[in-house]
Amino acid sequence: MEDIKSMEYDRLQTVLTDMGEKRFRAGQLYDWMHRKLAADYGEMTDLPLSLRSRLERDYPLTVLQTVQVQTSRADGTQKFLFSLGDGELTESVLMRYRHGISVCISSQVGCRMGCRFCASTLDGKKRDLRPSEMLEQVYGISRIVKERVSHVVVMGTGEPLDNYDNLLVFLRLLTEEKGLHISQRNVTVSTCGIVPGIYALAKENLQITLALSLHAPTDEKRRQIMPVANRYGIGELTEACRAYYAATGRRITWEYSLIGGFNDTLQDADALAALARPLSCHINLIPVNPIQERNYAPSSRAVVEAFKNRLEKNKINVTIRREMGRDIDGACGQLRRRQMQRDAKG
Ligand code: SAH
Q: Whose CA is nearest to atom 19 of ligand 1?
């Protein structure tokens, strides 16, 4: 059965005309699914009842069930645990900033990239998420909070470039003017560094922001925490970043998680600056969020500040990521994992 909420507009039109419907029905249906965010065909009152029941039978709508919502007392960050049609779980986060509401979504159930500090990957990858399942994280949250989501970051569980085709359809539907029409400039896709995916994305003619999780300035160090570094070296990565910037004109963000005593010396900062300078990258520093399964500790505040100052001295544009939602299982994959552990205990 084809997933109707994962269809781009042209495909939807074909499906409806093949059903013997008028073309304008596609516009109505698209509007209900992707702009009015209907959770049910029953809400689509300007579609004939007979059409609604045929759609219900042949194209059941993908919607997620809300399993849990946690709200941070500290900063209003909300973490959502949703269940998918097959009972798998996925998690998403809403963050409130001065410039709007940002939703962080997952792209896969679990992850197979194996980054050592990340909770999402501890049990490997279960499956890819479909475009509709990525969209529904944004739609579901919009329905719950009844506010407009202005920014979307694909930085939750999963490696988006390991689910490339679904990611692309998701990005088109999310930014499509007939739908929520989120500005491409307000969408960020974060990758651990799948080089062919970066080249492919560069050719898609999108204005999204690409974020690269670098986390170490040398291959030798990077390989200790990120298995993907055995496949793609930093030389290849920076070359791919250069190509992406040249093709899109969009500056790349490098994410750098500071792990106490591992990648946080001034020497590391200088090496990082030397890589970032020629590419005009923006660097986002994140004190590593400790997970109980591994003994990585975040760098102290003073070390983080010193690292930032050193980068700035090297003329690098740098921010320290505000740590949001620490009091609510903030790190990637922690919420789903806790729930699965609870379920296993019965
Ligand atoms: N697979 C993609 C996107 C998901 S992870 C990627 O690797 O970019 C989103 C970001 O959170 C990545 O930069 C990742 O390295 C980082 N991250 C994961 N676990 C973390 C933790 N415990 N502390 C700090 N950052 C973490």
A: 118
Residue 259 DSSP symbol: B
Catalytically annotated residue among 111, 241, 281, 332: 332
**Count: domains in the chain:** 2
My answer on whether 225 and 247 are in the same domain is yes
- Give yes or no: 147 in active site: no
Concatenating the DSSP letter of every residue in 260-289 gives TTTS-SHHHHHHHHHHHGGGT-EEEEEE--
Q: Is 91 a catalytic residue?
A: yes
pLDDT of the chain along its 346 residues, tens only?
899 999 999 999 999 999 999 999 999 999 999 999 999 999 999 999 999 999 999 999 999 999 999 999 888 899 999 999 999 999 999 999 989 999 999 999 999 999 999 999 999 999 999 999 999 999 999 999 999 999 999 999 999 999 999 999 999 999 999 999 999 999 999 999 999 999 999 999 999 999 999 999 999 999 999 999 999 999 999 999 999 999 999 999 999 999 999 999 999 999 999 999 999 999 999 999 998 888 899 999 999 999 999 999 999 999 998 766 666 765 556 677 777 777 776 5
Residues 50 and 74 in one domain: no
Q: Angle, nearest 10°, between helix axes 301-313 and 266-276?
A: 40
Of ligand 1's atoms, which has the minimum distance to the CA of residue 213? 13
- Domain at 27, CATH number: 1.10.150.530
229 with 103, same domain: the answer is yes
> Ligand 1 in contact with 257 (CB < 6 A)?
yes
Ligand 1 atom with least separation from CA of 113: 1
Q: How many CB atoms lie within 10 A of CB 59?
A: 19
